[in-house]
């Protein structure tokens, strides 16, 4: 069980000033009507209420009950199962069963603290399947009315955004940036949101579409809205965004980023999908048809850039042309989206490409790795690919990773790699990948392609001072060089949407650090969502939102501020090694002892690593060196001096990873 000491920080008093006796101090249930209450009423309302879950006077007994609440939130159980579980706890507890409050009492107290979601829309529609019944020929429907009809059910469950903000503020009293003098200043609320879908069940034709939000300065992801519907039914963009946009405008909230994978971004922005000719979100390049797919050759990198003003001009031109004809799109833009109504929202700068899907699951997995191991469309490696795969896997087993890489890549389970595993595999094995490919005949070009890709990744995902030291012009030239070599090695047909999107990284880097615009934290939260409801029961949306809020009540105080795990490790055969750390200038240290914030460490001797593939590439600028041993002198350093960890590569190389790459 997690430590529930967060309640101690929540019980701190806040000076609300002189409040009326009839002031509303509770988090009220959501309403079907949007935008209730005037601005004066919102300003008068004491909207930051310390959350108090103390059921008893005894602190130990309160902790005992909170452990049960945490277990109840983690389990996939209904309310009746929770009642049975609490009766079992009462029967086998070390306390007098008559002294423990009933499950109903606890649930009423939780309902006073947790904002209640509402199922605000339930729609049933009749639809017709496109396939005829039977194996006979297809006939017009007017003649043979034998098409199978089925029913589409759409259920929307959501929280009021105002209630969620008040809940978050009460749960983060010590470090909430938008609490001013005991009240919420909605103009200082900054948040990111995303839309994504997850499977509803293994045998169900429905899916869950989730709207998740994250407040600036906090790592926890809240589920704001849940939609249950058929996977194949048509979608209306106003159903997804209208209420959310109205609430943000009413409260004066600032939306920093809209994050998501390429299909969802294209849908909510009313843009051509990633298989269309004008699918690029950064420029107006028109794709070409090559081997039955839309491709973007390297010559298209210098196209007219999209801007927010240009985006609005295209929408206005499209609406004007539709009055006189049947224009489908203008430069890939297919209509007006509710996102354009958000306050100070840039349609290009605030909707950046997702680094997780593009870099790790797109380029590393689908492009470079498949070419490296000779993977066919059927998923079979050729003889040379099997030899390369075995050599890389053998060396990877001897690499010591830091614990911030929570999952070690399964070297023999390639099809099921997660994005975090692709990151650890690519970043930590780059010297091995280059060496193995250089030893193979005819693979020098692919080795240089890998080297450039990892170099660019480490610069873009690393700290700002590394990018500034190399310079924007140098990175643009190197990015164009990588694009040209990719087309030469892979062919024009391989220059798909992801490759073209990666060529815009110099501009995307100005939109924000990849750690801030990645969907990886949201994808991790979706795994918890799948454990927060019971399939086959009613009110799935309410179960998801309620149990995710219960988890938020029990997170550790340091959840929002991650620190590097630093520990002394004397063994050489460990899988995870947290004893190699680095400072802001890529000096490495071997930790021997940790005493609070004082760290005793030995400095590591290094030498610049030069790849035979490209000796001119400054690998020392991104933290890749040769390992030359320890100095032997132990010194004491402060913990805050270290900004990253290091990967020991078979005792020959050491790779420094900044915390922006570790914690993305």
Question: Strands, helices and their partners?
Answer:
Layout: H1 6-10, H2 39-44, H3 59-74, H4 79-92, H5 103-113, E1 118-132, E2 147-158, H6 161-171, E3 179-180, E4 183-184, E5 190-199, E6 206-215, E7 222-230, H7 237-251, E8 254-259, H8 262-268, E9 288-290, E10 293-295, H9 308-322, H10 355-372, H11 383-396, H12 419-428, H13 430-439, H14 444-461, H15 464-470, H16 472-490, H17 497-502, H18 505-511, H19 520-529, H20 540-553, E11 580-582, E12 588-595, E13 598-608, E14 624-638, E15 644-649, E16 653-658, H21 659-662
Parallel strand pairs: 5-8
Antiparallel strand pairs: 1-2, 2-7, 3-4, 5-6, 6-7, 9-10, 11-12, 11-15, 12-13, 13-14, 14-16, 15-16
When the domains are counted, the total is: 4
Helical/strand content category: alpha+beta
What's the total count of β strands?
Answer: 16
Give the CA-based shape: globular
Mean pLDDT: 79
Give me the oligomer status: single chain
> Count of helices?
21
Tell me the span between the first and last alpha carbons.
25 Å
Rg value: 28 Å
């Amino acid at each position: 069980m997690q430590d529930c000491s967060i309640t101690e920080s929540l019980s701190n008093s806040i000076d609300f000033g002189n409040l009326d006796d009839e002031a509303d101090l509770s988090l009220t249930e959501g309403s079907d009507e949007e935008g209730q209450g005037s601005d004066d009423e919102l300003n008068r309302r004491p909207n930051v209420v310390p959350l108090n879950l103390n059921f008893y006077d005894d602190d130990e007994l309160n902790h005992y009950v909170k452990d049960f609440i945490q277990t109840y939130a983690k389990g996939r159980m209904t309310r009746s199962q929770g009642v049975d579980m609490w009766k079992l706890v009462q029967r086998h507890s070390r306390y007098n069963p008559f002294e423990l409050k009933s499950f109903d009492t606890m649930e009423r107290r939780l309902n006073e603290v947790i904002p209640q979601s509402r199922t605000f829309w339930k729609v049933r529609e009749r639809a017709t399947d496109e396939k005829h019944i039977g194996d006979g020929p297809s006939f017009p429907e007017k003649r043979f009315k034998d098409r199978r009809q089925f029913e589409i059910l759409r259920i929307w469950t959501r929280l009021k955004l105002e209630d969620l903000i008040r809940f978050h503020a009460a749960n983060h009293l010590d470090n909430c940036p938008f609490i001013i003098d005991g009240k919420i200043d909605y103009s200082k609320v900054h948040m990111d949101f995303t839309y994504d879908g997850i499977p509803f069940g293994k045998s169900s034709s429905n899916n869950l579409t989730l709207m998740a939000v994250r407040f600036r300065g906090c790592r926890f992801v809240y589920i704001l809205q849940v939609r249950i519907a058929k996977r194949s039914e048509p979608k209306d963009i106003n159903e997804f965004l209208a209420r959310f946009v109205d609430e943000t405008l009413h409260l004066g909230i600032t939306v920093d980023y809209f994050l998501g994978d390429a299909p969802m971004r294209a849908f909510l922005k009313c843009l051509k999908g990633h298989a269309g000719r004008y699918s690029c979100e950064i420029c107006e390049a028109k794709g070409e048809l090559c081997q039955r797919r839309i491709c973007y050759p390297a010559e298209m990198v210098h196209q007219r850039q999209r801007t927010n003003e240009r985006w609005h001009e295209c929408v206005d031109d499209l609406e004007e042309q539709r009055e006189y004809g049947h224009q489908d799109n203008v430069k890939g833009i297919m209509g007006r989206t509710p996102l354009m109504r958000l306050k100070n929202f840039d349609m290009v700068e605030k909707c950046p490409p997702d680094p997780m899907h593009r870099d790790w699951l797109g380029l590393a997995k689908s492009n470079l790795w498949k070419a490296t191991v000779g993977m066919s469309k059927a998923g079979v490696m050729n003889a040379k690919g099997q030899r390369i795969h075995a050599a890389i896997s053998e060396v990877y087993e001897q690499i010591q990773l830091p614990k911030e890489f929570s999952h070690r890549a399964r070297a023999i389970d390639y099809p099921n790699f997660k994005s975090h595993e692709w990151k650890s595999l690519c970043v930590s094995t780059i010297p091995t990948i280059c060496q193995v490919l250089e030893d193979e005949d005819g693979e020098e070009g692919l080795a240089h392609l890998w080297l450039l890709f990892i170099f660019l990744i480490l610069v873009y995902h690393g700290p700002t001072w590394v990018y500034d030291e190399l310079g924007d012009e140098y990175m643009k030239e190197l990015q164009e060089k990588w694009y040209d070599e990719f087309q030469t090695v892979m062919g024009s047909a391989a220059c798909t949407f992801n490759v073209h999107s990666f060529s815009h990284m110099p501009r995307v880097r100005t939109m924000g650090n990849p750690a801030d615009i990645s969907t990886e934290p949201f994808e991790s939260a979706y795994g918890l969502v799948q454990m927060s409801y019971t399939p086959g029961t009613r009110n799935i949306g309410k179960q998801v939102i309620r149990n995710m809020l219960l988890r938020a009540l029990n997170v550790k105080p340091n959840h929002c501020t991650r620190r590097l795990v630093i520990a002394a490790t004397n063994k050489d055969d460990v899988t995870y090694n947290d004893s190699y750390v680095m400072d802001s200038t890529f000096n490495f240290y071997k930790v021997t002892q940790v005493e609070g914030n004082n760290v005793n460490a030995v400095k590591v001797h290094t030498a610049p690593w030069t790849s035979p593939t490209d000796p001119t590439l400054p690998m020392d600028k991104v933290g890749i060196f040769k390992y030359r041993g320890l100095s032997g002198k132990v010194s004491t350093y402060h913990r805050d001096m270290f900004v990253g960890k290091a990967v020991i590569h078979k005792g020959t190389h050491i790779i420094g990873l900044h915390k922006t790459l570790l914690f993305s």
